[in-house]
Write a structure and sequence with these properties.
Order of helices and strands: HHEHEHEHEHEHHEHEEHEHEHEEHEHHH
Number of domains: 2
CATH architecture of the largest domain: 3-Layer(aba) Sandwich
Number of helices: 16
CATH class of the largest domain: Alpha Beta
Strand order of the largest sheet: 3-4-2-5-6-1-7
Shape: globular
Distance between the termini: 128 Å
CATH superfamily of the largest domain: P-loop containing nucleotide triphosphate hydrolases
Helix content: 25-40%
Oligomer: single chain
Radius of gyration: 34 Å
Length: 475
């Protein structure tokens, strides 16, 4: 089926032609006739098969056919996504396809431009694309309203559950117009029982459309796995990089600390790369992604924050330096390559820990991953060593830092003479000239008693009061 055969508005047809969209993918061919008729759809398809264009075409068609209410600036369509990177990707696609539609599109996500996004919402936007957290923040401040939403789209709904966004998602959905007053679309790579329960609760009798083949992974991805010990993984990775000449490669790891160590080792051995993880500043993450997309950066190391929704053309290789603990993440990781009919290769390195996850992954994808045994020549031994990043020291709890003997704590107040308060008080009697031997004894007695009380029990039990010494008579 071609897009020109669908009953689409002329501005949208022009946008599709400018973007080079001619033939529909299987998920688009099956969902667009249903969604363009106004029915709700819950679609399931592999990553990289065109789910984003499927719901954007329906969204623009509905908004262009229905005229907006007069005198309002509130959003008419809402697209929810689990990650910031996915929001940015959807916004770029929406701006491309809807260039001639005359609709205002605004991305809302955390990490950047808090006041700028807030002002843009106040001025009014037709389509909002955002993550749940920042949307709820502005909603509680009454920056915008959801009462005029005509179209709702939930992308990667299963990821919403995995990342703990389900409570925030329900908070937003309960403030929308009734489900029969809006059109609802849900697309994801997997539609499990939890997702379908959400669909039946907040959607109007959705039609489930699935184009997932028997194989969970894309057919154009060549998969291979190498078994290597934890110490042998990096020498093997260097050998693979040198042998295959990977032009644009994504390397996935499970933890940020392991990613930092791998980042330092690859850069030290002549393979420039950058790392993105969940706690990297959003502006920095976007800058790194742009460098990778443009080809300026050949290798990108990432945690699973980048395993979904990112459409980066020309990714030739995906390397699972750590096998994922969640078998679904394996499908999304290798889906970064071989997108839109291209060819790609997915290489996995299984160490002592990763081998424990291999059985679940193969059961999930319903296929055995071909195994290759690396020859000795493939292991690089003359690489440069770097130190592993040290862990940040944990703050001590319940322990008070005491100053060393003979030193004054910075918390103690110091007298003008430079001595602590207790030292100055103890030294004061010595500085006063004694008029008589008896008077000097009377003044020194209280100081002695204070020093003795410190050495005894706090209750003071068992102490006998010392009589004041008699004054010496002078002959």
């Amino acid at each position: 089926m071609k897009f020109s055969e669908l009953p689409l508005p002329e501005p949208l047809q022009n946008g599709l032609a400018d973007a080079g969209f001619v033939d529909c993918t299987p998920i688009q061919e099956r969902t667009l006739p249903i969604s363009l008729s106004g029915k709700d759809v819950a679609g399931q398809a592999q990553t990289g098969t065109g789910k984003t264009a499927a719901f954007l075409v329906t969204l623009f068609t509905r908004l262009l056919k229905d005229s907006p209410p007069e005198g309002t600036h509130h959003p008419r369509a809402l697209i929810l996504a689990p990650t910031r990177e996915l929001v940015v990707q959807i916004e770029q696609d929406a701006q491309l396809l809807g260039r001639q539609c005359g609709l205002t599109i605004q991305a809302i996500y955390g990490g950047v431009d808090y006041m700028k996004q807030r002002d843009a919402l106040r001025e009014g936007a037709d389509v909002i694309i955002g993550t749940p957290g920042r949307l709820i923040d502005y909603l509680k401040q009454k920056v915008y309203s959801l009462k005029q939403i005509e179209m709702l789209v939930i992308d990667e709904a299963d990821r919403m559950f995995d990342m703990g966004f389900i409570a925030d998602l329900r908070f937003i959905l309960r403030r929308l117009p009734p489900f029969d007053k809006r059109q609802n679309l849900m697309f994801s790579a997997t539609l499990n029982q939890r997702v379908m329960e959400l669909a039946y609760e907040f959607m109007n009798m959705p039609e489930k459309v699935s184009v997932t083949p028997e194989k969970m992974t894309a057919e154009n991805v060549e998969q291979v796995i190498y078994h290597a010990s934890r110490k042998e993984k990096f020498p093997l990775l260097l050998g693979l990089l040198r042998r295959d000449g990977m032009e644009r490669t994504m390397i996935f790891i499970n933890t940020k600390r392991e990613g930092e160590y791998l980042h330092d080792r690859l850069n030290a051995n002549g393979f420039p790369c950058r790392l993105i993880s969940g706690d990297v500043d959003q502006k920095k993450r976007l800058r790194i992604l742009e460098q990778f997309k443009s080809g300026e950066l050949p290798i990108l190391i990432a945690t699973d924050v980048a395993s979904r929704g990112l459409h980066i053309d020309g990714v030739t290789h995906v390397v699972n330096y750590d096998l994922p603990q969640d078998c679904e993440d394996y499908v999304h990781r290798i889906g970064r390559t071989a997108r839109a009919g291209a060819q790609g290769k997915a290489i996995s390195l299984a160490d002592e820990d990763g081998a424990l996850y291999l059985e679940a992954i193969e059961e999930y994808i319903k296929a055995k991953i071909p195994c290759e045994w690396a020859e000795d020549e493939l292991f690089v031994t003359d690489f440069k060593r770097v130190a592993r990043p040290k862990r940040a020291p944990l703050p001590s709890r319940g322990k008070e830092v005491r100053p060393e003997r003979g030193k004054t704590s910075s918390r103690q107040k110091r007298t003008p003479s430079g001595k602590g308060p207790e030292t100055a008080a103890a030294a004061a009697p010595r500085q006063q000239p004694a008029t008589s031997q008896g008077a000097g004894a009377d003044e020194a007695a209280p100081a002695k008693k204070r020093r003795r009380r410190r050495k005894t029990k706090p209750s003071g039990e068992g102490q006998e009061q010392q009589p004041a010494p008699e004054a010496a008579t002078t002959g």
